[in-house]
Amino acid sequence: MPAFPTYGPEEIGALNKVAGAVLGVFDKRGYTRLEPAILQPAQIFVDRSGEEIRRRTFELTDPSGRELCLRPDLTIPTCKWQVESGGAYPARLCYHGLAFRHAPGAGEFYQAGAELLGLADRAAGDVEMMSLTAEALRAAGLTEFDMIVGDLGLFATLVDALDVPAQWRGRLKRNFWRSGYFEALLARMVAGGTNEAQRAVDALHGLKLMDLKPAIEALIDKEGDAPLGGRTREEIVERLTIQASDGAAPRLDADVAEMITAFLKVSGPGEAALEDIRTLTKPVAAKMVKPLAAMAERLRALKGLGIPPERIRFVAHFGRNLEYYTGFVFEFWARAGEVAGGGRYDTLLESLGAPRGTTAIGCAIRTERLVKARGL
Amino acid sequence: MEPVTLAIPSKGRLKEQVDACFAKAGVALKQIAGARGYRATVEGHPGIDVMLLSSSEIASSLAGGDVHLGITGEDLIREAAPELEGRVALLKPLGFGYADVVVAVPRSWVDVSTMADLDDICAAYAHKHRKRLRIATKYTQLTRAFFAHAGISDYRIVPSAGATEGAPTAGTAEAIVDITTTGATLKANGLKILDDGVILKSQATLAMSLAAEWDTDMRAAAAALVGRFGATLPS
User: Fold this and answer.
1) Are A299 and A159 found together in one domain?
2) Same-domain check for residues A134 and A223
């Protein structure tokens, strides 16, 4: 495809046909169509999207100086509409339109998407979204596809279950999808190491919990009238307290690091991969039972949808670089490439002002790729 | 033959240092009458046309191919041309105009001394305050690349035109990326450099634009000039 194509009647016809089939399935399953504005305030995306999306967003300034952007996805405006319209939950919303992301030689693409918001039963939501996506792809004429599935929740549970210094848990969870960087991080944690802040922690070592706070406050006061940035003293006290509780010079146990590394390498046909994880994480089996059972349940559901198990690959490190995903994630692949993807993002709605704990799962279908994939 | 354009700083400390550097290399500049001091020629190098521009303009002109050669800070060149390859060739560091581009945070953050700490803080800040931690800088590109390399994504860049070091005190940003030579200005503003927060050790650099139009004659003229500074053109 040329970099900036003009679609002629034939291409428009093919795209409309595929989009019509996908939207037809969404409509039949009770999803209401929205049409978010293409031009959006930049801030809402900047504050919520991952670096990968932000780097690729087209930002612009209007004549009055407002920071705008061409929507890099339609999920955020769709969720924002739901929160602001004050509609009831669960809500089922969908869309089809252009999204804009900078890429070499390209900048825009069509996507159809569906969002299931506020359904408390997560397992039911996972199944509904997988089945909706599969049905939409089939209705559009794609009968042969492979799947990749993963679950960010599995890794988070593992890190919480393992003996990891409390101050490093977040760091591991945040960075697990950055291959290369993550391995280096793990190695640093095993090696230990000291730095300026470590000296602050050492100074606090051996103090009783009740003496920690005044000691940390004294450290801050020693810096005189240095600014706090937007942080509060309480935040600094809280973080140093956690670090001090981990003891002097925390280290990550080599066995623990090894288990994490082995876990992230697991990749293969669904059932077998889950068995690998069960074996691998035996020392913390009790904690892993629930999320592993949830994953097994999803694999069973996929079998029920007529997707053969050998076409479903479970990849432990699969996390999608979008940052707002929090749990189950999936992709559908045709021979020509990825045609659909989606997952659970249970914290986005709350960040937009919805009640605490409002769940969300969604999918996005690349309709132009679907047109190509059908032609093969 | 089209002249080879060489851009050098038009004002400030860097201009004085460049003048001294030319004198040391025995290269004499001659102002062009009527050009208000913004154009000059080089004695003994008739194919060279000298333009006096601001330091940042030199960097963007090199990146955009508007001049052939230029002398300016490596920090500015790397900021103007994030992926250097194919756009600008750094020919020779000139040994003056030293400055480090660094990540600096408030000294009262006694729990922060590394980029990994900053990563923790950024995530906690986004979670707690429901907005991203702000980094004030004029080095948008260098900051993005360095933060991505350090695995940090929960932050937001606030473009700063000047007096960046005052941003945390003014409340317009939490931390900064800026240049420093002695660290005194940062210290006076209650900031400290992270242990692993040096993004670039910069100095004034003679550079060649690969995006500009070149032919054999022009390359020969340029090679003769840069040779006076002990530099050679890339093949």
Assistant:
1) yes
2) no
Q: Is A234 on the interface with B (CB under 8 A)?
A: no
How do residues B4-22 score in pLDDT, each as one tens digit? 999 999 988 999 999 999 9
* For residues A23-37, average pLDDT: 98
> What domain range includes position A281?
153-192+253-310
Domains of chain B and CATH, by start:
4-97+204-227 (3.40.190.10), 99-202 (3.40.190.10)
Closest partner CB to B148 (pick from A51, A197, A216): A51
For CA atoms A99, A45, A30, A360, the dihedral sign is: positive
CB distance from B110 to chain A under 8 Å? yes
Same domain? For A126 and A222 the reply is: no
User: CA A291, CA B80: separation in Å to the nearest integer?
Assistant: 48
Q: Are A274 and A296 in contact (CB under 8 A)?
A: yes
Q: Which residue of B lies nearest to A347 if distances are taken between CA atoms?
A: B127
Are A242 and A270 part of one and the same domain? no
Is pLDDT at A59 greater than 80 in this prediction?
A: yes
Give the number of domains in chain A: 3
Cβ distance of A175 and B173 shorter than 8 Å: no
Q: A161 and A283 in one domain?
A: yes
- Given a contact cutoff of 8 angstroms between Cβ atoms, the answer to whether A281 and A158 are in contact is yes
Query: What's the CA gap between B228 and B235, in Å, rounded?
Result: 18
Give the pLDDT confidence of A157-166 residue by residue, as tens digits.
999 999 988 8
Name the DSSP letter for residue B21. H
Q: Given this model, what pLDDT does residue B153 score? A: 80
Q: What CATH number is associated with residue A54? A: 3.30.930.10
CA-based nearest residue to B231, from B76, B97, B93, B96: B93
Regarding whether A299 and A240 lie in a shared domain, the answer is no
How far off is chain A from B234, nearest CA to CA, in Å? 27
Mean pLDDT, residues B72-82 = 94
Among residues A219, A249, A279, which one ends one of the domains? A249
pLDDT of A1 strictly over 80: no
**Cα distance between residue B90 and residue B206, in whole Å:** 6
Looking at the structure, tell me whether residues A113 and A159 fall in a common domain.
Answer: no
Lowest mean pLDDT among A133-137, B35-39, B217-221: B35-39
Nearest-10 crossing angle of helices A233-245, A166-175: 100
Taking the Cβ of residue A178 and every Cβ of chain B, the question of whether any pair is shorter than 8 Å is answered with: yes
Take residue A347 and report the two structure tokens written for it: 């914290």
